[in-house]
Model the fold of this input.
Amino acid sequence: MWVDVGGSAGPSLDPCGQHEVTAGRAEPRRDTPLTVYGGGWMQSVPGRETPQMAGHSAAASAAGYLYQTNWALVDLLRKGQGRPDQAITLEMHDDVAWTSLDDPTDAVELLQVKLHPVGTGAGLGDMAVDMWKTLKVRVDRPDAADPQGPELSMVTTSVASPGTAAYALRPAAGGGGVRDVTLAGRLLLLAAEKSTNQTTQASREAFLALDSSVRSGLLNRVRVLDGQMPPEDLDGAVREALSYGLPTVYNQHVSANTPLRVAV
Done:
């Protein structure tokens, strides 16, 4: 991965020693694998996709995958300093995942990232295809029955509508939120039984086949992180995070007129 922060001259090493910086481009060193570290850098692990992710890839959608990658970078820059013992992976455990730094196979938080029309509730209805696709990914995991398994988040630019399971699965905000796992379970069961959508049939059948205690434990781990920033705001968020997180010598390159690009 590299982050183009604009026109510096000459090669140097970034403070973490993980990337060479040449002509304004922070690039992974050729002698290291490419992964994202909680202390500051992203690493991609080619060929390491876990079995449960096979057939559940966002890479088919160029726009969705680009959003997924850039959103992960923003999440890393915002949370990395508070998670120094963790790393971010892409398309390994899930679209995006926070893992143990020492053991990338040990997932802490799994995130499905969905690029939906902003503020419309698209993809978040009780019978919505994306809602059930995401649930199928969760049900297919080998730790689906483990109540102590990793957090399971759905990141979306859409906003959940009151009265839906997605709305009930949002994180409680400041102790005064509306999170209600029991209600979400009832709404999803009703939708699974009533829907006739062939696209979601396998997902709904898998959900209905779960023991009620397993289903409840799984939903307790699910978080709907709706209302995420749209694609056009990600560059600004990266600039803002970099202006605080990088040494002063780097900040002169992060300006409103400097192209900032991310590639993995």
Q: What stands out?
A: The first helix runs from residue 62 to 79. Helices lie at 62-79, 129-140, 165-168, 181-194, 201-209, 212-220, 234-245, 248-251. The longest strand covers residues 107-114. The chain is about 30% helix and 15% strand.
